[in-house]
């Protein structure tokens, strides 16, 4: 990370931050204009009040006989304050919501980018590691896009404050000849004070080294600490039985305390406190110098009493503004060190051909033409020279041992990956030519690593907020799902406890049947079942396959399993071994072939089915 920091020049940091703010403008269009307006008001309000107060005090000190001028100044002051307050009541209400939701919206934005990635990017370990690192740093230190949100307001406030303070102080410089001439009323004294103001940014830059060191500490340990505590939090929930049986409480507490690195956090706050001390000292010294010069000039008749009050306040505002501006700029520069990682993730290429051709209303036929596939970065082919076809209404079983290429075939069929060699056609046309979403509508799949969502049972089946209750119940019944006693609200019962304390945790077998019901609810022409019954016993597995076969007479069903219960329901069976198609035929034909891979697999599992090839 340190090497990367050294490469970030100020110009590159500017470009990175500019791109970040363009993303924020798209993510939350109202933020930048609202924050600009709100921060400008925060900077201007005290200086406007100072100026109006100076006019009122000067008018009173002059002893004017007409009160109309004083009433005018008072009225203007009230009007300005009312306008500022009214505007801020509108802007801050919206900004409070935006800022409180910043972490959530950033998380949603990153998740949306993840969902739009090509599937092959999602399966890369380095992509997942990068996303995890980005999220960890964002949660631990606020680095990344979120930091831009929180740094923008102070930057605008400081910038507007500097300009307004200089405008107000210009009167102190352009004033006429003083009543009493001495060194403090000359331009030399003004130049010395201006030099002090110019020197202040260098003090601010110097003190930033403490902020940098503090940030380096947190950036080094913060993500690990957050990850550790997040892991232990989940482990405590998921491993309650193990914790009690193996008395893991003490070791978890001991490791968690060590992971917290308490002494590191103490060092962090020590450095931050030192930085704040230097800032306060520099500002106070400059304020004292300004008070002394302006006060003495007022005493010697160079400034009216009201103007002196305004100039002192403006000097204080200028000091704070310069300090705040340098602070904001350097924080943005520091944050720029983390933006390249974010943008590298956002810039991951999307290479999938989406196609434009529409589906035809016909009996679809899918065919693999000498397809070979190698996973990105892998040396060995997962599939070699695969050729087969299947059509509407056909029941096809793909069998083989683990790692033989069964799941890879389904990923290629669903165009999650594209073939390395060869091609896949639908109705004689390359699958890449079809509109991608329309093509996917043909397939309803249950993968072995299916997901249960923290929504209601009905929403899990329909994958939608609103659903057809009758259709959802039928899909569950067809999948063999039997309502356990914990399902107390029928389809409205929430699943999992992530989003609801009343959520129900289903067993592995029940969850698999919900996943199968989800595939049936979609009612697609092709049903793809990739190890959908791994959590079921052989009898339950046979029952699920029997049900699916019964309700899918007009559909194509592809059963993928290393257990062979599904094969007796299929017209055709293809057998994989080490990425190659080694046999195909019906159950009876393959079972009759002595020395064949299918017969070998069947006999190895015959005890579960009550028969063997020889019995």
Relevant terms:
3 domains; alpha/beta; 615 residues; 10 strands; six-stranded mixed beta sheet; ABC transporter transmembrane region fold; Rossmann fold; disordered N terminus; four-stranded antiparallel beta sheet
Tally of discrete structural domains: 3
Distance between the termini: 66 Å
Question: Briefly, what CATH class of the largest domain?
Answer: Mainly Alpha
Number of helices: 22
CATH topology of the largest domain: ABC transporter transmembrane region fold
Total strand segments: 10
Strand order of the largest sheet: 6-7-8-3-9-10
- Sequence stretches where pLDDT stays below 50 over 5 or more residues: 1-5
Tell me the overall shape: elongated
The helix-and-strand class reads: alpha/beta
Identify the CATH architecture of the largest domain: Up-down Bundle
Radius of gyration: 36 Å
Helix and strand arrangement:
Elements lengths: L1 H6 L2 H18 L3 H32 L5 H33 L1 H15 L2 H4 L2 H17 L3 H29 L13 H52 L1 H6 L3 H12 L1 H38 L5 H31 L3 H8 L18 E9 L9 E9 L3 E5 L6 H8 L7 E6 L2 E2 L5 H5 L2 E4 L10 H6 L6 H10 L29 H15 L3 E5 L7 H14 L4 E6 L10 E6 L2 E6 L1 H6 L4 H13 L6
Parallel strand pairs: 3-8, 3-9, 6-7, 7-8
Antiparallel strand pairs: 1-2, 1-4, 4-5, 9-10
Helix pairs in contact: 3-4, 3-8, 3-13, 7-9, 8-13, 9-11, 9-12, 9-13, 12-13, 18-19
Please explain how this structure is put together.
With 615 residues, this protein is of the alpha/beta class. It folds into 3 domains: 345 residues, ABC transporter type 1, transmembrane domain (ABC transporter transmembrane region fold, Up-down Bundle), CATH 1.20.1560.10; 164 residues, 3-Layer(aba) Sandwich (Rossmann fold), CATH 3.40.50; 71 residues, no CATH class. Helices cover 61% and strands 9% of the residues. The strands form 2 sheets. A 6-stranded mixed sheet has the order 6-7-8-3-9-10. α3 runs antiparallel to α13 and α7 crosses α9.
């Amino acid at each position: 990370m340190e090497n990367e920091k050294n490469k970030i020049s100020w110009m590159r940091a500017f470009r990175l931050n500019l791109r970040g703010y363009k993303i924020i403008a798209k993510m939350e269009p109202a933020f930048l204009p609202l924050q600009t307006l709100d921060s400008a008001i925060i900077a201007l309000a005290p200086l406007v009040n100072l100026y109006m107060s100076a006019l009122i005090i000067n008018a009173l000190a002059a002893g004017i006989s007409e009160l109309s001028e004083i009433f005018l100044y008072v009225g203007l002051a009230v009007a300005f304050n009312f306008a500022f307050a009214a505007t801020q009541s509108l802007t801050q209400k919206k900004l409070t919501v935006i800022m409180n939701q910043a972490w959530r919206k950033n998380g949603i934005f990153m998740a949306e980018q993840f969902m739009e990635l090509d599937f092959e990017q999602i399966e890369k370990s380095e992509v997942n590691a990068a996303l995890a690192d980005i999220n960890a740093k964002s949660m631990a230190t606020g680095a990344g896009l979120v930091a831009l949100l929180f740094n923008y307001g102070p930057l605008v406030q400081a910038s507007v404050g500097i300009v307004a303070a200089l405008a107000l102080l210009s009167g102190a410089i352009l004033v006429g000849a003083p009543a009493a001439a001495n060194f403090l009323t000359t331009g030399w004294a003004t130049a010395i004070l201006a030099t002090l103001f110019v020197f202040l940014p260098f003090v601010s830059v110097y003190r930033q080294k403490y902020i940098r060191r503090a940030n380096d500490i947190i950036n080094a340990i913060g993500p690990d600490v957050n990850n550790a505590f997040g892991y232990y939090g989940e482990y405590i929930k998921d491993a309650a039985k193990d914790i009690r049986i193996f008395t893991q409480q003490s070791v978890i507490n001991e490791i968690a305390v060590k992971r917290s690195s308490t002494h590191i956090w103490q060092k962090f706050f020590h450095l931050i406190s030192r930085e704040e001390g230097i800032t306060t000292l520099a500002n106070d010294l400059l304020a004292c110098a300004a008070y002394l010069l302006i006060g003495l000039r007022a005493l010697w008749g160079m400034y009216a009493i009201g103007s002196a009050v305004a100039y002192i306040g403006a000097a204080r505002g200028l000091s704070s503004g310069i300090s705040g501006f340098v602070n904001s700029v350097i924080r943005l520069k520091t944050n720029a060190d983390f933006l390249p990682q974010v943008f590298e993730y956002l810039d991951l290429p999307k290479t999938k051909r989406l196609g434009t051709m529409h589906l035809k209303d016909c009996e679809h036929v899918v065919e693999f033409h000498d397809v070979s596939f190698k996973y990105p970065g892998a040396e060995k082919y997962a599939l070699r020279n695969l050729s087969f076809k299947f059509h509407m209404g056909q029941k096809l079983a793909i069998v083989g041992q683990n790692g033989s290429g069964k799941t890879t075939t389904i990923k290629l069929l669903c165009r999650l990956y594209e073939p390395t060699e060869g091609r896949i056609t639908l109705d004689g046309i390359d699958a890449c030519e079809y509109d991608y979403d329309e093509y996917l509508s043909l397939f309803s799949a249950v993968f072995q690593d299916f997901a249960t969502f923290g929504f209601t049972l009905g929403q899990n089946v329909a994958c939608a907020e609103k659903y057809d209750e009758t259709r959802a119940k039928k899909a569950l019944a067809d999948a063999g799902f039997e309502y356990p006693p914990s399902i107390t609200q029928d389809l409205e019962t929430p699943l999992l406890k992530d989003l609801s304390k009343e959520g129900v945790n289903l067993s592995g077998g029940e969850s698999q049947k919900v996943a199968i019901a989800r595939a049936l609810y979609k009612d697609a022409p092709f049903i793809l079942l990739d190890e959908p019954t791994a959590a079921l016993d052989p009898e339950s597995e046979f029952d699920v396959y029997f049900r699916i076969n019964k309700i899918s007479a007009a559909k194509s069903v592809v059963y993928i399993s290393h257990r062979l219960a599904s094969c007796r329901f299929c017209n055709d069976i293809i057998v994989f071994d080490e990425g190659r198609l080694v046999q195909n035929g019906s159950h009876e034909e393959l079972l009759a072939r002595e020395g064949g891979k299918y017969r070998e697999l069947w006999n190895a599992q015959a005890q579960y089915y009550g028969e063997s090839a020889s019995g």
